[in-house]
Amino acid sequence: MLVTVLVMISFLVSSLYFYVEAVKNAMGKKRWLVGGMLMGPMLIPMFSISKKVHHRKTVGFNSCYLQS
Asked: CA quadruple 52, 57, 59, 60: dihedral positive or negative?
């Protein structure tokens, strides 16, 4: 019983995390919120790859990006 509650809480917290990060990075909010609810923390690698791809599409592939 306790394990089930902890898993549900981790899925809820991860969905809120993905929602906030998607808003910060101008990505699809609802898609990452629902993905976080369904897959939980297992979605982290896919989110980080998608964030990098989205950034590359926005900035461009042949441009210089300086990070401070």
From this structure: positive
The structure tokens 């549900």 sit at 8
pLDDT 10s digit of each residue in the chain, 68 long?
999 999 999 999 999 999 999 999 989 899 999 999 999 899 999 999 999 999 888 887 777 766 76
Total of domains in the chain: 1
Domain that holds residue 32: 2-59
Give the separation between CA 11 and CA 67, rounded to whole angstroms. 32
DSSP string, 12-44: HHHHHHHHHHHHHTT--HHHHHHHHHHHGGGGH
Q: Per the domain annotation, does 17 fall within a domain?
A: yes
